[in-house]
Amino acid sequence: MRVMPGWMWHSNYGANDRDYLINFTATYGLHTIEDRKELWSAIENLNSNVQNSQLIMGDFNSILKGKDRSTLVMDAEIRDFEDMMNN
């Protein structure tokens, strides 16, 4: 669990009557690309170490398509977020 900067909170949930475990992560992406890169890296690391179903939700402060924002978006911002989502 890491809660600042670019915070991420991670917990596990299991059901006693079923044989499964879900990993839940709540996250918040900071406002600059450089600050978010550290968070993307932490999420990728978490993904590589988790064997169970996983739910990651929160405010990533990033978009996958330039048309999703009314202001100019740098290609690097979209590419880094997309790479993290695909890994």
Short note summarizing the structure:
This is Endonuclease/exonuclease/phosphatase domain-containing protein. This protein has 87 residues and is an alpha+beta fold.
Describe this structure in words.
The protein is of the alpha+beta class and 87 residues long. It has a domain at 8-62. 33% of the residues lie in helices and 25% in strands. The protein contains 2 helices and 3 strands. It has helices at residues 33-49, 75-86; strands spanning 8-14, 21-28, 53-59. Strands 1-2-3 form a 3-stranded mixed sheet, with helices on one face. Helix 1 (33-49) links the parallel strand 2 and strand 3. Helix 1 packs parallel to helix 2 (75-86). The radius of gyration is 14 Å and the shape is elongated. The two termini are 21 Å apart. It comes from Solanum verrucosum. This is Endonuclease/exonuclease/phosphatase domain-containing protein.
What is the radius of gyration? Answer: 14 Å
Low-confidence stretches: none
| Largest sheet strand order | 1-2-3
Mean pLDDT: 80
Order of helices and strands: EEHEH
Global shape: elongated
**Assembly context of the chains:** single chain
**Structural class per helix/strand content?**
alpha+beta
Number-wise, the strands total 3
Largest sheet: 3 strands, mixed
Classify the beta-strand content into a percent band.
25-35%
- How many DSSP helices? 2
Percentage of residues assigned to helices: 25-40%
Gap from first CA to last CA: 21 Å
Protein name: Endonuclease/exonuclease/phosphatase domain-containing protein
